[in-house]
Amino acid sequence: MRHEVFGGNLPAVIIYLDRGESIYTQSGGMTWMSDQIKMETNMKGGLLKGFGRMLTGDSLFMASYTAEADGQYITVASSFPGAILALNVGEGAYICQKSAFLCAQPDVSLSVYIPPGVKGSFFGGEGLAMQEVAGNGLVFLEIDGSVRELDLKKGEKIKVNTGNVAAYQKGVKYSAEVVKGFKNVLFGGEGLFLTTLEGPGKVYLQTITMPGFAERILPFLPKKD
After folding, report:
1. What predicted TM-score, i.e. pTM, was given to this entire model?
2. Total domains in the fold of the chain
3. Helices vs. strands in the chain: H and E counts, helices first
4. FRET pair for 141, CA 20 to 30 Å: which of 7, 8, 13, 157?
5. What is the distance between the alpha carbons of residues 201 and 141, in angstroms, rounded to a whole number?
6. How many C-beta neighbours within 10 Å does residue 19 have?
7. Per-residue pLDDT reduced to its tens digit, 109-155
């Protein structure tokens, strides 16, 4: 299966399908497609998995698209300015921020993931529920802003501002720690907690967050009298 990401900071991905090949997206994820592709809407994984996806910002129903002839294509666009990241989960499962899932091959599973440890879950910047993608094949994630890949060695740690963790391999240790120093907490602008990631494994960091972006543009929005 070939794919092509285009659009710069407003990205979309074209996925080229031959007869019998398919992908699935959340409901309403398709932007345009060729005419010999069959669409089927389903709950993929059942009701419980569907409700789990809703906790992480995705839809209850998913849409599967299957090519009925060679040389077909489907385009799926990101819903926010940023980047589209293609990951091969056959090399290992990944944990992603909420609403990161864009589309995937049918053998890729999407489920809710709760990071171990209450502090890491509530204060790590991603909330209680995250997304886990596993199985076999390609998954496409939408990233806020630009993306940076780091390959952490065993025992290597990195501290990340809340919300800037886009995805990481499941073997990476995820936790949160309190920012030290009263003045740092009050005036540092980074909040009370920082996320800590410890290798080994790959991590993907994003340069902006949707809440941070919304906070910046809010003062410029027209106000009702």
Report:
1. 0.81
2. 1
3. 4, 19
4. 157
5. 18
6. 12
7. 998 888 776 444 444 445 567 899 999 999 999 999 999 999 999 99
